[in-house]
């Protein structure tokens, strides 16, 4: 009887070990997909719209925190993406229990900025709508990450 219990314990431990290895490999694969950046967009469909609005639309120059612990913080935007989260290497480091380590990314595509949720636990919201794919962020539209609300400003 003791031999059977020992063999079942060994098999269960081995199964648990393989499950952990599989979970780590899945996490690494999903992180690699997220790190690759935004999905390519069709330039043909976007070119006429950009030409039509290029004279009247303003370009975002600043990222401003409007609500939360970092309220009134302003970041000058350039060509590089803005990483938002609790990680020390994020562009906007949040001290927020509802934000993930790598929560969201703002990336520039031409004159437009797009927000992408990086698999966060609590989600990223653009004007009360949950972001599931890279989504264009209009100027002045609130983006909520945890308890922090940010906006793009000219």
TrEMBL record:
Q: Does the keyword NAD apply?
A: no
> Coiled-coil annotation: which residues?
none
| Domain FHA per the UniProt entry, residue ranges | 82-131
Which Pfam families does the entry link to? FHA
Check the record and name the SMART domains matching this protein: FHA
Question: Record keywords: Chaperone included?
Answer: no
Which UniProt keywords are present, listed alphabetically? Phosphoprotein
Q: What is this protein called?
A: Forkhead associated (FHA) domain, binds pSer, pThr, pTyr
């Amino acid at each position: 009887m003791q031999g059977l219990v020992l063999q079942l314990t060994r098999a269960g431990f081995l199964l648990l070990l393989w499950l952990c290895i599989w979970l780590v490999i899945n996490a690494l694969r999903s992180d690699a997909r997220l790190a690759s950046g935004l999905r390519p967009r069709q330039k043909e469909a976007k070119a006429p719209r950009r030409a039509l609005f290029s004279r009247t639309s303003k370009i975002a120059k600043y990222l401003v925190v409007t609500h939360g612990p970092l309220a009134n913080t302003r970041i000058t935007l350039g060509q590089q993406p803005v990483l938002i989260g609790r990680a020390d290497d994020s562009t906007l480091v949040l001290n927020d229990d509802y934000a993930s380590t790598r929560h969201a990314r703002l990336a520039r595509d031409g004159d437009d900025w797009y927000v992408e949720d990086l698999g966060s636990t609590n989600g990223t919201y653009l004007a009360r709508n949950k972001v599931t794919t890279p989504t264009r962020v209009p100027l002045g539209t609130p983006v909520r990450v945890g308890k922090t609300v940010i906006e793009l400003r000219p």
